[in-house]
Amino acid sequence: MTAAAGRATTVLQALFALLTAVHLGALLVDATTVVHLTKPALMPVLAVWALARGGPWPLPAALLCGCGGDVLLQIGGETAFLAGMGCFAAGHLCYLTLFARAGRGRTAPRTASWAAAGYGAAWLGTVALLWPGLAAHLRLPVAGYSLLLTVMALAALGAGVWTGLGGALFMLSDTLIAAGLADWPRPPVPQFWIMATYTAAQWLLAAGATREGAPRPTPERELVSP
């Protein structure tokens, strides 16, 4: 990475951190206008940062899908909610494309089996608990979306520690959203916690993907005389 590119990534990361802090603060004080202005800007800034760090195309694509989902969920209404869920699902497919190859051979088979069992149990248990509280026409879309999210999080876990933590936080963020759909008790100012875990998840996924996928120097081979 050149010095200019390094400075650009530093500025973009600082801008993302600033936007995130302003957005979360606005949620706490119920500054609706600031919330609506900052939310659509979060993922595009992170996408440009990921590109500046040399991220492959599925990474900015996933982040921009997240931006589409953010905007649609902000609009409100059931149609916009379902369309937003579709945008996030497309983003998870982009992440899967990215992490499926990155995770090959990194996780021992026994560890991978335990991880798959744990994530599968988490998905099944969450869906089973939420099912009675969800509207009938939302049950299958939410179950299908959450399954895709779980598979993405599992692939992220196999690709590295940072991406694995990002996938887990993404699951937590979306579980908080689903809990609202099912009228479950949630922490005070739930949107703050949803966005705090979501922005952290997306940053970890992007940072981990560019960190793990960054070109590494190849050691020179020593010439051995016959």
Automatic annotation (TrEMBL):
<keyword id="KW-0812">Transmembrane</keyword>
<protein>
    <submittedName>
        <fullName>Lysoplasmalogenase</fullName>
    </submittedName>
</protein>
<keyword id="KW-1133">Transmembrane helix</keyword>
<feature type="transmembrane region" description="Helical">
    <location>
        <begin position="112"/>
        <end position="135"/>
    </location>
</feature>
<feature type="transmembrane region" description="Helical">
    <location>
        <begin position="147"/>
        <end position="172"/>
    </location>
</feature>
<feature type="transmembrane region" description="Helical">
    <location>
        <begin position="80"/>
        <end position="100"/>
    </location>
</feature>
<keyword id="KW-0472">Membrane</keyword>
<dbReference type="Pfam" id="PF07947">
    <property type="entry name" value="YhhN"/>
</dbReference>
<dbReference type="InterPro" id="IPR012506">
    <property type="entry name" value="TMEM86B-like"/>
</dbReference>
<comment type="similarity">
    <text>Belongs to the TMEM86 family.</text>
</comment>
